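Question: Hello, beginner here. Any chance you could explain the protein record under this note? Any guidance would be welcome.
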Amino acid sequence: MKYLVVRYTKPYHKMQGQELIMDMLNDPKIQEAFQVLHPGGTWSGLDCKISRVVVSVVPASLTRLDIFDKLMASSPTIVRANGDIAKCMDDVREGFQISDLIRDLLLNEDSENAGLYSNEERDELLWRLFEHMVLGGACCQFEDKLEPYVEITKRLYKELVSAHKDPGTGKIQVTSVVYKINAVYADSGALEFYPSKSRQNFCYVALDPTRRIVKVLYHAFVPYW
C-alpha cells in the first residue's frame, strides 16, 4: 500500500478530476514518488508520458458510522450484541476465504444477508474502505470483533476526506471529491497498474478543492499462492 499527499497550485474545479489526475501523473516529481507494484513484487515509478486516464467518481457523502448499525440488526445476525462477528462454514470466493458472516455478506451473492445494503450504500467510500479492511491482504489475520475493522476504516476515511460544518444548516458535510483510477494509458497502450486482477486492487484520489490538496491511496493485491 502507498499513500501520497500532493499540494497543487493550478486552479481546478472540483469536478475536473480527470484533468488534475492526468497533470499530476505527468509531473516528473510525482512520477518518481508515485510507485506501482509489478509482478514479482518490484515497485517502480511510472517513467513515461501518460496519455489518458480512466476515472470514476466515488460517492463520499457519509459523516457518521451508522451505516454499520445494520450489521447488528440483521437476520441472521452478522454481529452479536457483544461485538463478536458470527462465524459460518468455510468457503472460498474470488480467492478469499470466507469464515464469518461479514465476509459472507461481502463476497457471497447468495448470502442470506446479500440484500442488507443497497448498491448505493456499497458504493460509498466509507463502505468501500471497510470492505478493503475486512478482506485484507493475502496473509491477513481475521478479526473476531467488528470494532477493529470499523476503527481503522474511520481513521482512513478521516485521513482521506475533508469536511466542514455548513453555516446555514449546522450539519457536517464532506468537501472532498473522490475519484478511483480505473486505468492508465501511455502512447504505447495500457500500463500495468497492478500485478494481478483482484477486487482488492484500488487507487483512490481525494481532491480537497479548498486547500488544494490531493491525497492518493494505492493498494495492489498480491496472491499468496
Notes: The radius of gyration is 19 Å. The helical segments are 17-26, 28-33, 101-107, 119-123, 125-135, 147-160.
